[in-house]
Specification:
462 residues; alpha+beta; Helix Hairpins; Heat Shock Protein 90; five-stranded mixed β-sheet; four-stranded antiparallel β-sheet; 11 helices; 56% helix; rod-shaped; coiled coil; ATP-binding; transferase
Length: 462
């Protein structure tokens, strides 16, 4: 038996015992009084009806009134001037009741009560002793007659005691029966709860699973909520583990990238201290400091961007692309790069984070300029049914397909671009990847002959 079984059984048994105890005491203290009250109510109501009838009418209706109200009605003529009027009335009433089957051993009406009848009715109770009943009588005077409405009252004390003993036995039997039924029925409730307890314990130990429970009540709804919670926690836990692994790798890569400029700055500073500067040491230190500053700023931005909440809005992707291209026109002219732009004449309204998409376009265009090997860049903005295709293509030397999967990783720089003029921080494409994945846009990179192209696809348009 589980703890909940015990609690339910004990609680219900205590409730039954308390109810039985209260019931026994109520029976003992109040049932006789209530019984007497009801009897008095019957003869008082009948007395009011009789007082409205004439004497002759009443005499003719006695049998009907007796049957309707389950009482006995007798009457006798009275002369209040008689010296023995109370004895005469008492004997007459005893005789009349005897004629109707009620034998009275104790019956007496005083002269004071007889005189009161001139103004009001009088109620009397006559205890018949060993006969174990009493007679409740209401006396009413009409003209020269006194009418007595009588009803027998059984002595209920012995009956109540028998009923109470029976109730005690029934209560004991009820406690046993209820304990058994509670154990049986509570198992139907407790078993699903036990399953939910085990499920919760497993979830707390990071053993994510679900439990199928069918009870068609709130317990089933609770199990569904816990199942959803387990699935969501497992997903969040896996994402957190992946993020932790990425963070470890990120810290390792960041540390490695920072070592080089720091080591060079230190080496050239020592060279200046040792007077072996050929005139280029300070320039090298400044250049490496700038590279280190760029790297730190990019790291700060990348860390901040991972926590960014997107501000989704509607904007024209075509206008945004043209705006980004214009920012690089001077740099493109300086490097004698031929720019080929192909934009469909169509509607390019999309719903996305405008600032984030601008970062994506700036990174793709700046990379195409920085790592260009044939002085040519192709930019496409095309529409096919409900899809928008964005592509930036440029020539590049000495790259193989094995490197394509790595270029999205933080700090990865193509071997062909590892030079003072071209090498960057290696974080630009990792930021692009984060933005496009957060928007659920398809993206990728392909190599065709000596060209590399980066693209992304917007499926939902306005």
């Amino acid at each position: 038996m589980t703890k909940l079984n015990k609690k339910l059984s004990i609680s219900i048994c205590i409730a039954v015992i308390l109810v039985s105890f209260v019931s026994l005491n109520i029976n003992k203290l109040f049932i006789h009084r209530y019984y007497l009250h009801e009897k008095k109510q019957i003869i008082n109501n009948l007395g009011e009806d009789i007082s409205k009838l004439s004497t002759q009418k009443l005499m003719s209706e006695i049998n009907n009134l007796e049957q309707e109200n389950n009482v006995t009605i007798v009457y006798t003529q009275v002369n209040l001037n008689s010296s023995n009027v109370e004895d005469e009335v008492s004997e007459n009433f005893s005789h009349e009741f005897w004629k109707k089957g009620i034998s009275l051993k104790k019956f007496w009406i005083s002269k004071d009560s007889l005189y009161k009848l001139n103004d009001q009715s009088v109620n009397k109770i006559y205890n018949q002793g060993k006969s174990k009943y009493s007679l409740l009588v209401k006396f009413i005077k009409k003209d020269d007659y006194i009418f007595a409405i009588g009803t027998t009252i059984e002595h209920s004390q012995e009956t109540i005691e028998i009923i109470n003993r029976f109730n005690i036995m029934m209560s004991a039997f009820s406690v046993i029966l209820i304990s058994i039924l509670t154990f049986i029925l509570s198992n139907k409730i407790i078993k699903p709860i036990e399953k939910l307890k085990l499920l919760s314990n497993d979830i707390s130990k990071l053993k994510f699973r679900t439990e199928e429970i069918k009870t068609n009540d709130e317990i089933e709804e609770l199990s569904q909520s816990i199942n959803k919670m387990s699935v969501n926690l497992e997903k969040a836990h896996n994402e957190l583990n992946n993020r932790n692994e990425n963070l470890k790798r990120f810290i390792s890569d960041a540390s490695h990238e920072m070592k080089t400029p720091v080591a060079l700055i230190k080496a050239y500073a020592i060279g200046i201290q040792d007077n072996i500067d050929d005139g280029t040491f300070i320039d090298t230190i400044i250049e490496q400091s700038e590279h280190l500053t760029d790297l730190i700023n990019t790291l700060l931005y990348w860390s901040k961007y991972e926590k960014k909440e997107f501000n989704m809005c509607n904007f024209d992707l075509k206008e945004k692309l043209i705006h980004c291209i214009k920012k690089y026109e001077i740099l493109i002219e300086e490097r004698n790069i031929k720019l080929n732009i192909k934009i469909d004449d169509d509607n390019f309204m999309i719903n996305a984070d405008e600032d984030s998409i601008e970062i994506v376009l700036n990174n793709l265009i700046s990379n195409a300029i920085k790592y260009n090997s044939n002085n040519k860049i192709d930019i496409f903005l095309l529409k096919d049914n409900d899809e928008i295709f964005v592509c930036v293509k440029n020539g590049i030397n000495n790259i193989n397909k094995e490197e394509i999967d790595n270029i999205w990783k933080p700090f990865y720089v193509l071997e062909s671009s590892r030079s003072k003029e071209l090498s960057g921080t290696g974080l630009g494409l990792s930021i692009v990847k984060e933005i496009l994945e957060a928007h659920k846009f398809e993206y990728g990179a392909d190599i065709n002959d000596e060209d590399i192209e980066f693209f992304f696809v917007v499926k939902k348009m306005i």
